[in-house]
Design brief:
Helix content is 33%, strand content 20%. It contains 5 helices and 5 strands. It has a 5-stranded parallel β-sheet, sandwiched between helices. Helix 3 packs parallel to helix 4. The structure holds 1,3,4-trihydroxy-5-OXO-cyclohexanecarboxylic acid (DQA). 1,3,4-trihydroxy-5-OXO-cyclohexanecarboxylic acid binds next to loops.
Length: 141
């Protein structure tokens, strides 16, 4: 069975509460339980969230030589973090960058990603379904 990790960065612990017009009304925990059920028998899904750049890096290093895929929503660190980009380059596990919102239809500072170039691909703008689409991409690789 494949091992796939979903990793959420800063402020994504507030999904369901945070700016619902942009990020929706659904809390991540229930959504994640649904994904686990959907992919039972195909992929073992784990979930990690942190508001701290170093904690995200520590976690990616700890699974990144073992897991088959990482679905990463780095939140605002997407636009700023050389350290997360370096971590993605350092590990062996393929990483897919995801965003709930269409970052290209938002403020210009969200148009640039520090991590896209070192990720396998990017999925943005499909709401929480962006995570499922990334899992599908990892499974069908
Ligand atoms: C986000 C987009 C980022 O620009 C923002 O900082 C986030 C969430 C998204 O999922 O749409 O925190 O990654």
């Amino acid at each position: 069975m494949m091992k796939i990790a979903i990793i959420n960065g800063p402020n994504l612990n507030l999904l369901g509460v945070r700016e619902p017009a942009i990020y929706g009304n659904t809390a991540f925990d229930g959504f994640f339980a649904g994904l686990q059920e959907k992919y039972a028998g195909v992929a073992e899904l784990t979930y990690f969230q942190s508001n701290h750049e170093g904690a995200l890096i520590d976690h990616m290093q700890s699974i990144g030589f073992d897991y088959d895929g990482i679905v990463l929503n780095a939140g605002a660190y997407t636009h700023t973090s050389v350290a997360i980009a370096d971590c993605i380059s350092a590990i062996c596990t393929p990483v897919i960058e995801v965003h709930i919102s269409n970052v290209h239809s938002r403020e210009s500072f969200r148009h640039h990603s520090m991590i896209s170039a070192v990720c396998k691909g990017v999925i943005a703008g499909f709401g929480l379904d962006s995570y499922r689409l990334a899992i599908e991409a990892l499974i069908s690789r």
